[in-house]
Amino acid sequence: MKKYFVSIVLVILSTTLYCSAQKENNKSLSIKNWLQVNTESIQLPAFHSTQNMDGDTYELQNLLQENYLDKDKQQPAEKNILKWNGENLQWTKVSANAKDFLNTKSDKNSISYCITYFSTDEWMKAKLIVEANPMLEVYINGEKKISHYEETTDDAKELSEELKLEPGKHCILVKVLNTKKNNDFKLSIEPKEDWNKNDITFSLSPEQNLTIHKVLDGEKVQNIELSSDGKLAILSYIRTLPPSDDSENWKEIQEIATGKVLYTFRGSQLSDIQWLPAGNRISYTKKYNDNTSIFIFDFENGSEIELSNNIADFSSYNWTPDGKQIIYSVMKDHSEDWKIRKIQGMEDRLPWFRTRSFLYKLDISSGIKQRLTFGTTTTGLQDISPDSKHILFSQSRPDYKEYPYDKQNLYQMNLKTFQTDTIWKDKLFGGSAQYSPDGSQLLIQAGPSCFGKLGESIGKQPLANNYDGQLYIFDLKSNKAEPITIDFDPSVSQAVWNKSDKNIYLKANDQDYIRLYSYETISKEFSTLEIDSDVVGNFTLSANGQSMAYTACSISSPYKAFNYDLESNTSSLICNPQKENIEHVKFGKTEDWNFTKEDGKTIIGRVYYPPNFDSNKKYPVIVNYYAGTSPVERSYGGRYPLNLYAAMGYVVYLLQPSGAIGFGQEFSAEHQNNWGITTADEIIEGTKKFLKAHSFADANRVGCIGASYGGFMTMLLQTRTDIFAAAISHAGISDITSYWGEGYWGYSYSVNASGKSFPWNNRKLYIDQSPLFNADKIVTPLLLIHGSVDTNVPLGESIQMYQALKLLGKDVDFVQVKNQDHHIKNYTQRILWNNTIFAYFAKHLKTQSQWWDDLYPDKNL
């Protein structure tokens, strides 16, 4: 898979050359305009005439082969500066026929760089042709395609290379060794398939549409944690390392006020880095002979102290607020090697089920370690009291006798006496708990049914969707709970009770936004925090409660880290690691588009337009949805980067059907026992209304795509309509019964999708609403994609639909992604997976089958 190393498309310069040719003679397109920079002279190394260990001497061609310039990072525009050995060299526009083309002032050997760009609107094959006198190398998108190491003075030597060009903008870079003999070269591109005069466009601008590499590559900020006083932050980063499938993770400590990076932990052996409750100190762990040691590092005096060592099976740790103790957990896998065994309950088939975790206490002053919990059931730390005297911990276990088949116990332990009190026992819909600032109450984060009907607001719906996150304040003396979000429609996913101002700060899905809110416990009112981004990743409060930081992104803006001033309610940027990566990317317009059903319900959606959109043209359309219990958020990138689909020349319509969280409990409860009947009709109705309302949308070229529950929806839709010209299902469910029984989360997810319904008591849902049992109704070409080791939605869900459609003589394709689970995470496979989607839609929505045929040629098997 070729890597696009150049960012491209904002405003095409006036120097853009539109090239045309006639199909009859397949005329080559000569490149006439370049950006050029001439370097100063370069020297042969000392002892160049001496043979090395291989018996070779250093030749002129070796000067050319040296990697003087970072080829895959060059994306210059005219008048940009190239820094070269302390000098500033300017990229200038020059014609290939001009006198100053490759004219160097040096009397000695020197290197010249020439760059130009060209765009293709569709996948195509072409030939790259070079007529060269000087020694040179030619790169396309950072990959060397042609090399010429024999200097000629009279007749130019012709060299060529076959190219496979994906849609988008490409960069040609030529490195020329100037020797004052003859520096001329000519370069042209010759398309090999049928093509139109505007199929290839040349430019001197590095601006481009979004590509899959712009989505995947570059440094990304993942998390932020503030120091106790909020003046420093630990930032967590990740970057891909193409062309390999490896990635790099590291942390940096940055000063908030100045932006200065004080420390970086790139390539270090440290893990579990976190701030101490007070002072500018961090703790971290190191592994020695499979055992773990815990250290403290003090920034003020630069000292490192080992707190404890030789901890076996170490898992994680937390500081008590007074900084005098650490509560840590150990985790041990009790599974055994086996050739045949009895499954001890439904969860026992899950590979992690026999892993158990228990809690320990480390006293900092003495180094004494004491075990806090024991038994057969995992105990998980929930919180530590503000006075450091108590902890909250929980246990959960399956119970197949009672819906929802899982029960939770919550306990409070005195860390001095180990006295343990039960806060609740056998709770059917458990949650997470944290102490109030004074320790007298608990903030409970759970679903609507955590305290029975107390927290439910589902109207006439029979069952709540307990993926819809709610908050409760639980009084430890009275054991009574108050549902504080019962009239708050956004679905809570993270909450912190601030000890400074006593407010509760929370992150919540508000329809397709993820916002930050504050809840004033006295006035009992919610307020929206003013931030510029659409989707918050995570947020953190400093230990003193006076500072906040968060990560966030928007539709056309990657994740950044921000500091939030709680007094002025304003944000300031901490870091923007993707700035350079997308510097030259042009995004199309995005706007909301909603429709109202006959029953008065509004179904929200949004539209992604291609860059350089022209409303007078007709565009193919891709309809996207999840239709499960989570809305498709307004984030950048992601596994289905809709901006990228638009960049490929499609209008993309995304809608949020009934059943999603973030719209209120009654709306999300519609997910229960529906399995696509309501949502399928909404997708069909929304698509028809969208096409009718937008003249530029070509109703004959509409595709649809969804994954997981959305993959199920893709299959189900084709049994109920023929409005789509092509459909793609990734990891989709074809038979609700087999998914319920086989998927790792099948029956547990069904608690919120088909609560109290089973194959034996609701055949209509499990059979009539399963796409497999309606496969004969499908007339739309369908692509099934699936990870070969998917444990959430097993591979068989696609296999059985593929077999059914093949036997029925339907147009169906099936692509497996080797050794990938429910999500395609491997770097190179992710690119191939995306290209599979693009190529399939190109074949069916653009009548351009060459890309698909190249990826998956028919074989005579």
UniProtKB/TrEMBL annotation:
Matches recorded under Gene3D superfamilies: alpha/beta hydrolase, TolB, C-terminal domain
Q: Can you say what this protein is called?
A: S9 family peptidase
Q: Which residues form the Peptidase S9 prolyl oligopeptidase catalytic domain?
A: 643-847
Entry GO MF terms: dipeptidyl-peptidase activity; serine-type peptidase activity
Q: Name one GO biological process term.
A: proteolysis
Does the keyword Kinase feature in the UniProt annotation? no
Q: Which residues form the signal peptide?
A: 1-21
Keyword terms of this UniProt record = Signal
